[in-house]
Amino acid sequence: MRKIWQNDGFQRNFYAWVLLFPSLIFITLFTFYPITKTLHLSFFRLDLGTPQGIYMGLGNFRGMLEDEVFWKVLKNNIWFAAGTIPISMGMGMLMALALNKAMVGRSWLRTFFFYPTVIPMIAIANIWLFIYTPEYGLLNHILSWVGVGRVNWLGNPNIVMWAMIIMVIWKESGFFMIFYLAGLQNISRELYEAAEIDGASSITVFTKITFPLLMPTTLFIFIIALTNSFKLVDHLVIMTQGGPNNASNLLLYYIYETAFKFWDQGVASALTVIMLVIMVIIASIQFFGLDKKIYYS
């Protein structure tokens, strides 16, 4: 026994597991158990009419797939992700490229661009609610100066999602800028000096040096942005409640409504399982596909 304990490899692994054990307890309690419980509840009818629960098998999933609201909400979430992710990432990269250079007031500009990130989403929703208000909102006042009539930004189902997308882009671009700045500062200056000696243009330097070496950062930001597009719902509580006619409703807010407004835990659990499956598929594509095609310096 003494020889086993004196083995360096055993001691190192033992101490590692001892240090990881508290985290494992928290992960089990707040991640693995809720996922397992949600999967279990998704097979039961569990609402106000059946508080004890009745086993339904895949009945909740079949009903969900026949629900027009579910497909509309899922479509909204796809459009929300498609609208926010590329633009906010692109703006974050452009801001990082501009602020990575030596200039007067660079620190102030970085703070200015990053500031929306530290504001709570509830506060941002209230700020943009004032901006979008039809009667006295800031945006409609500006439009009235150029002769454009008042627009009901949050009451028109055709434009309410675009209003949400613009607000989220404003909030997240500065957050992504910080990651791109860190990625840019890790690129060796010798590469740029060699390109300058060879007479490479700015476009060539960006496409052949900067962008390829930023791909690990870009992939990391992409996963964060995609996750945020499915979990950002605080603004809906303040601004639209998912309306009008579910035009701005997103999957997580629909789960919240189903569970805590309609008190249908079975269907809400099934919706949560679908969202988890979507996120697992995305993570698998990232791990088994994109990640292996990226060059890490």
From TrEMBL:
Entry annotated with the keyword Transmembrane: yes
Cross-referenced InterPro entries: ABC_transporter_permease, MetI-like, MetI-like_sf
Gene Ontology cellular component annotations, sorted alphabetically: plasma membrane
Keywords tagged on the record: Cell membrane, Membrane, Sugar transport, Transmembrane, Transmembrane helix, Transport
Main location: membrane
GO terms, biological process: transmembrane transport
Bilayer topology: Multi-pass membrane protein
Transmembrane segments: 12-35, 78-100, 112-131, 159-182, 203-226, 267-290
SUPFAM superfamilies on file: MalF N-terminal region-like, MetI-like
CDD domains for this protein: TM_PBP2
Annotated localization: Cell membrane
Pfam families: BPD_transp_1 (PF00528)
Gene3D superfamilies in alphabetical order: MetI-like (1.10.3720.10)
Protein family according to the UniProt entry: Belongs to the binding-protein-dependent transport system permease family.
Protein name: ABC-type sugar transport system, permease component
Species this protein is from: Clostridium aceticum
